[in-house]
Amino acid sequence: MKHFTTTAVLFALANPAFAETREWTLDQGHAHIGWEVDHMDLARTAGRFDAFEGTFLIDEDDPANSEITVVVDAASVNSNHIGRDNHVRAADYLNVPAFPTVVFTSGAITMATETKGQMAGTLTMLGVDAPITLDFTLKSDRNYPDFIPNYDEIRVASFEATGTIDRTAWGMDFIAFPGSPTGTAIDLDIHIDLVDCGSVPSEVVATNVPCNWGYTDGFKGPNEG
To answer: Rounded CA gap, 40 and 29, in Å?
Structure first.
């Protein structure tokens, strides 16, 4: 079975698609988009987005033809504090009624080592397109082990990415009162598994956990009965 070279997979996740590509599936059970922001130099406020999806089109033979788009449901912001989250959804911050999604579209990439690099792209938020750069690492490109039921030894590539954005670049400049601001620098922390569902027969995909979990209504994953 052909596997990505490290350099190829990183380029494959960073450049616009112009030729033949194959779509990989985001494993919704193993995906996380998290964030942290300063709060008066006290304990940092941390949260995540609970709902997002992505399109991952990869051309392994010519990685420059590949493309990533990630669409985040802005209303799914979750910092484990309902009052704060309702404020973040309001016009001072994400303005969810007017701008229900946050979208990342991949762009150029530079390599630092064989396994680490930077991915540039565009983040669309509050109706504004602004650049963003993510530092990322390819953690693994392997097959699931054969002893895990309904994972079918399917191929998976895992990634971690971090980055920092200045929210004022998107016009999100609200500060509650002088001397007690919510920070403007937001640190991002991303973990994803991409699964090669297109390389296995349809009858296998029909019962495969990462290919269906979060995509198929009524599909039950491990330990759900």
So the answer is: 34
Residue 181: the pLDDT is: 84
User: Structure tokens of 106?
Assistant: 């991949």
- In this prediction, residue 113 carries a pLDDT of 77
Decide: 26 and 71 in contact? Cβ < 8 Å: no
Of 174, 162, 214, the C-alpha closest to 89 is 174
Looking at residue 125, its pLDDT comes to: 98
Q: Are 72 and 79 contacting, i.e. CB atoms less than 8 angstroms apart?
A: no
Check residue 24 and give its pLDDT: 92
13 in Cβ contact with 70 (< 8 Å): no
Token pair for 122: 């565009």
Q: What are the per-10-residue average pLDDT scores of the chain (225 residues)?
A: 47 49 92 96 95 85 72 98 97 98 89 78 97 92 93 94 97 88 95 93 93 91 76
User: Whole-model pTM?
Assistant: 0.87
Give CA–CA dist 104/85, Å, rounded: 22
